[in-house]
Amino acid sequence: MRVLLRVLAPLLSLVVAALGVLVVVEVVAAWVNPASTGLLVPWSTWRQTLETTLWSAGPVLWIAIGVAVVGLILLLVGLLARRHDITLRSPSEGITVTTAPRVLARLVGRRVRAADSVAGATVTASARKVTVRAQTRDTGGDARSEVRSRVDEVLGELPLTRTPRVSVSTTGSKGPQ
Q1: Which among 82, 90, 65, 86 is positioned nearest to 154, based on CA atoms?
Q2: Is 45 left (phi over 0), alpha (psi -120 to 50) or beta?
Q3: Spatial CB neighbours of 101, under 8 Å, sequence gap ≥ 6
Q4: Of 35, 47, 69, 82, which one is least surrounded by beta carbons within 10 A?
């Protein structure tokens, strides 16, 4: 969502800037020649059409509904694009400490990959859940418990305000051991 917001913000800014330039050009043209019907936009034709159109007309209602839907979509994009930082315990009063989910995933991933029985691992993290998918060299069932204990060890060392749930899945590696 943040990427979408980063694309939409400049585009909407350019549209608003273009409309502003258009209004300035039209106002200056109307000052220079008051009898003109508009330099770039046929204002007089639009005015005549709008004078005969009722607020209860079908096209007016559909345009209003469309504008409302687009506004709600933009509002949702803005609300859902917030940062999803993980809060840590503050060292003193008035200080807020956060970290990115990517940092937590890297910390957990390094510790899991350092195990002798792990050939590789993929870690995703959020404030609520840490998911580890590990490829193990062992075919036994104790590799999963070793990975789980390493993840719990890392999470125990960090000053997290809320300990996330942990999900660990292991598969045997297919490549050379």
Answers
A1: 86
A2: alpha
A3: 84, 85, 86, 124, 125, 126, 127
A4: 35
The rounded distance, in Å, linking the Cα atoms of 105 and 109 is 6
How far apart are the C-alpha atoms of 138 and 45, rounded to whole Å?
79
Contacts of 53 (CB under 8 A, 6+ apart): 59, 60
H or E element, residue 3 = helix 2-32
Domain ranges of the chain: 2-80, 97-172
Cα separations (Å) of 152 from 65, 102, 107, 139? 51, 17, 12, 22
Phi, psi (5° rounding) for residue 83? -75, 145
Rounded to whole angstroms, the Cα distance separating 103 from 85 reads 10
Q: Which CATH class is domain 97-172?
A: alpha beta
With vertex at residue 73, the alpha carbon angle to CA 55 and CA 64, rounded to the nearest 5 degrees, is: 5
pLDDT in tens, 110-137: 999 998 888 899 999 999 999 999 998 8
List Cα–Cα distances, 11 to 68, 70, 71, 177, in angstroms: 19, 14, 15, 52
Residue 86 has φ and ψ, to the nearest 5°, of -105, 125
pLDDT digits (tens, 9 = 90+) for 74-121: 899 888 887 788 989 888 888 888 999 999 999 999 999 998 888 899
pTM over 0.70? The answer is: no
